[in-house]
Every structure is written in structure tokens, then in C-alpha cells.
Amino acid sequence: MNKIKQSIALMLVLILAVSLAACGAKPEAKAPEATNGAATTTGAASLENKKVALIMQINLGTFSAQYIEGVKEQVEKLGGKVTVFTAEGDLAKMSSNLDAAINQKFDGILIDHGTAEALEAGVKKALEKKIPVIAFDVDIKVPGVTVLEQGDQKMAELTLDKLSKDMDGKGNIVKIWVAGFAPMERRQIAYKAFMDKNTGIKEVAAFGAASQNTALDTQAQMEAILKKFPNKGDITAVWAAWDEFAKGAARAIQQAGRTEIKIYGIDMSDEDLQMIQDPKNPWVASAAVDPKDIGRIQVRFLYQKLHGDQTPEKIVLDPVFVSRDQLPATQISTAQLSEHVKGWGKSEQGYTEWLKQAEKPVNK
């Protein structure tokens, strides 16, 4: 009797197995493991808790502060954490910081300025370790690395065109500029083309150096220039290729009472905007990309890399021209600038639908 029961039970098991096979039932598939931040079949949730390194050549002034704020805001919205490495302008230290980030096994690396000579070896090492890299304002040409740049030539053209219009195409100017930075070199191309075309405008002095005290150093140098050209009409305007230059020059001109000299700059931060809005300040116009947007956009492309998406080799950010006559009499911040200047802030560059869905509110 027991043997009969065992036979019947065995037959039922066999029938059940055959039925399952006929219905196409299969063992549950195991999800593939993520490798170094690559996307998994579970989607954007797999990108939480990423460690992001921001490797900076120099962290100086309110522009850099707002840029870092944009980086951190976007990373935190995607559930990650940022560590900032700054080199105080020392390229050897910047290269060492990049190596440190690789050795500490960060999930992604952002680079801010620097040179190809100092960074390319480290960037290639990062890619070998499957760590994605997104750079800003550095002339790196390594396959697989996306490089962001502001529309530097366009920014120079916008400010120089305004300078020329305000001067009626003639007068003496001072150029404040420094070599050795990719964005500066691009701005210089536009400056040279402008000077070649506008023969009524003469450059009477040129200087500029990047340091941890750029604004103060510029102020001292501008004071010396003003003593060299003491008379009204000796200098009509100053073209400053960086907001730190514009700050220093503005303070020197204002303190000297040379209110006839106007400044046309590049870049924009809350401090810069406050100066441009001041009717007693010689700084009257600037062209820029929102520094917070630069940080946000750079992070978005890094997370696209982490997600396994293809990204372009070069991204050009669209600049905006800001002049005093566009602004209200009451003081505003860059967060309010979009209410008065079309195209400022809230850029959608680098956004994908899955990125928007992956974002979470950040507690301030």
C-alpha cells in the first residue's frame, strides 16, 4: 500500500514538472552587478550614495563659491556626496590631488581648470580604473572625457562690443588678462580680432596675474596705471577678462575718483552684481554663465556617465550679457537676475528625464 502511495506521489511530481516547463517557467534571473558606477537594470536608484571628487586649480572669490554650491546641490539631489580638493593655483598639487582621488576610489571626478600637461596622465589613469571624468575650462583631449567650456569668445565679443559702442569707437583702453588658462586664451582670440577691427581704439596698458589675492594685486597694479595716466581722457575704459580683475580695478578707479573710466568684465557672482548695480561703481557690464548652473550641468553629465549614457566630447555653455541699464535700482542677487535678464540661470543643459526623476529634495 505504501509503495502504491509513493508511486502516485512520484507521478504527480513528474506531471507538475512537465506542466511548468510547458508554461515557460524559468528560474529567477539574477540581476547583473554594477561595476564602478555603471548602470544596472534597477535604474537610477543604483546611482545613490556616489562619492564625487571636485579637483580645482584655484578656489577664489564668490564665483568659485557659487560654482561649488551648484556642484554640491546637484550631487546631493542625486543622493551623493562631494569632496573638494583645491590646489591654490599649484598645478603639481592639482595633479597630486587627482591621483589621491583615484587612489581613494571616488566614483566620479570633476575637474575645474588646470592644464593638459598637469592632468592628462591622471585622467587616463582614472579612466583605466573605470572612474568617469567631466572637466570644466581645461583643454584636455582624452577620448571618453567630456569637457565643458563657457562661450568664452562670445563673452569677450559681447563686452567688447558694448565697450566700443559706449566709446563711439575711439579712445584708450587698459586690458587686464593673464595667459595659461584655456578660457583666457579663448577670450584673447576675440580680443585680438576686436582690436584688429577697431583701429580707433588703442591699448595703452596691459597686465594681469592669477594668485590667491588676485583682486588685491590687480587693485595695486591698477593704482600704478592710474598714476602713469593721471589726466582725464588718458584712459577711457578697462576690459577685464575675469571678475577678480574687474573687482580690483573697480576699487582702484573708485578710490582715485576717476569716475570717467568704465569697466567691462567677464563672469558674474552676487558680489559682482552688487558692484555693477552701484551707480558710483565704474564696473558697468559683464558677460557670464551662471556659476551655479556650470556646477549643476557638469554634475549632470558625470551622472550620465555613471548611468552608462554616451556624452559629447565638448559642451559649450551659453553666456548672457548683463549691463547696469537692465537692472533695477533696488539690490538683487543672481538668484533673481532671471527676472530682469533673459536667459540667466535655470539651464536645462545636461538634463535627462531619468535624471529629473532620480532627484530628491535637498534640505538646506
UniProtKB/TrEMBL annotation:
Family indicated by similarity: Belongs to the bacterial solute-binding protein 2 family.
Sequence ranges assigned to domain Periplasmic binding protein in this UniProt record: 53-309
Primary location group: other
CDD domains given in the database record: PBP1_methylthioribose_binding-like
Assigned keywords, A-Z: Signal
Database matches in Pfam families: Peripla_BP_4
Name of the molecule in the record: Sugar ABC transporter substrate-binding protein
Subcellular location: Cell envelope
InterPro entries: Bact_Solute-Bind_Prot2, Peripla_BP_I, SBP_2_dom
PANTHER family the record matches: ABC TRANSPORTER PERIPLASMIC-BINDING PROTEIN YPHF, D-XYLOSE-BINDING PERIPLASMIC PROTEIN
Signal peptide: 1-21
Record keyword Signal present: yes
